[in-house]
Design brief:
By secondary structure, the protein is mainly α. It has one domain: Cytochrome Bc1 Complex, Chain D, domain 2. It contains eleven helices and no strands. α2 packs across α5 and α8 runs antiparallel to α11. The termini are far apart. The N terminus is likely disordered.
Length: 255
C-alpha cells in the first residue's frame, strides 16, 4: 500500500512538473515571438537594392528633364526660325511670288525687332504678321533677329537691269528737285543699313516697289505710338513710280 502510494505521488509530481515545464516553455516562446514582432525588421537585401535603384532612376530622370527643357528652349528658336523660312525662303532670302515676301537674311537686328513689335502694336498694318508677332515673347524676338542677321544668301535678283543706272543715281545722289535726300545717306553705301535703319541690299524688287508705293497705308498706323518709319513718309510720297522702280531694281542686286 505504501509502495503504491509512493509511486502515485512520484507519478503525480512528475506529471505536474512536466506540465509546469511545458507551460513555462510555452510562455517563453510566446514572449520571444512578441518581442521579435516589436523589434524593427531588417530590410531584405533585394528590397534595398530595388529602392536604391528607383531613387537613382528618379534623380537621373530629373536631371534629364532639366537638360531636355534647356534643349527644348534652344530648339524652339530653331523651330520658330524654320516657321519663318516657310514663307520667307529656305535661307530667308525672300519669295517673289504673287504676293512678294521680303528678304530677312542679313537684316539689322534692331530693325527686325522694331518691326515685329510694330506688327504686334499695330503700328504696321499686316494681319498675318500681326497674328504671328503676337505669339512671340521679347526674348524670342531678339533671338530670331540675331539668327536672321547671321544669314547671307545671294540676292534673288530678277529686277529689270535697264533700271539700275537710274536707280544708282537716285540712291547715291537723291532727287534734289523733289527734295529727296540720297538713300545712301541713311542706309549706307551698298545699303547695309544700321541699327533701326534697314538693310536694302538684296531686298526683293517687287517688295521694295510695294512698300515705297504704299508706305503711308502700311507704316505708322498707330498714332499713339509713333514709329521711326515716319521719316520715310515724305520721301516715299515724293518719289514717282518710275523712280521707285529704279531704286528698287538697283538695291535688289546689291550684296
Amino acid at each position: 500500500m505504501s509502495v503504491i502510494w509512493s509511486n502515485s505521488l512520484r507519478h503525480l509530481n512528475g506529471r505536474r512538473a512536466g506540465e509546469g515545464t511545458t507551460s513555462l516553455r510555452g510562455i517563453r516562446c510566446r514572449n520571444m515571438t512578441m518581442a521579435r514582432q516589436r523589434e524593427p525588421r531588417t530590410m531584405p537585401v533585394g528590397v534595398r537594392w530595388v529602392l536604391r535603384t528607383a531613387i537613382l532612376a528618379l534623380a537621373f530622370a530629373g536631371a534629364a528633364a532639366r537638360a531636355e527643357d534647356k534643349f527644348a528652349s534652344r530648339g524652339s528658336v530653331q523651330a520658330k526660325l524654320s516657321f519663318c523660312k516657310d514663307c520667307h525662303g529656305t535661307s530667308a532670302q525672300g519669295y517673289a511670288g504673287f504676293f512678294p515676301i521680303p528678304r530677312l537674311a542679313g537684316q539689322q537686328t534692331e530693325y527686325l525687332e522694331n518691326q515685329l513689335r510694330a506688327f504686334n502694336e499695330h503700328r504696321r498694318a499686316n494681319n498675318i504678321m500681326s497674328g504671328i508677332a503676337n505669339t512671340l515673347s521679347p526674348a524670342m524676338i531678339s533671338a530670331l533677329a540675331a539668327k536672321l542677321r547671321e544669314l547671307n544668301p545671294p540676292p534673288v535678283g530678277g529686277a529689270p537691269r535697264r533700271l539700275m543706272a537710274e536707280g544708282k543715281r537716285i540712291f547715291d545722289d537723291g532727287v534734289p528737285e523733289a527734295n529727296v535726300a540720297a538713300c545712301a545717306a541713311c542706309h549706307g553705301p551698298d545699303a547695309p543699313g544700321v541699327r533701326e535703319i534697314p538693310r536694302l541690299a538684296g531686298q526683293l524688287f517687287p517688295y521694295v516697289v510695294k512698300e515705297l508705293t504704299n508706305w503711308g497705308k502700311e507704316r505708322g498706323q498707330n498714332v499713339a505710338k509713333p514709329d521711326t518709319s515716319f521719316i520715310m513718309s515724305p520721301i516715299a510720297h515724293s518719289l514717282t513710280k518710275p523712280q521707285i522702280e529704279a531704286v528698287a531694281a538697283y538695291v535688289s542686286y546689291l550684296k
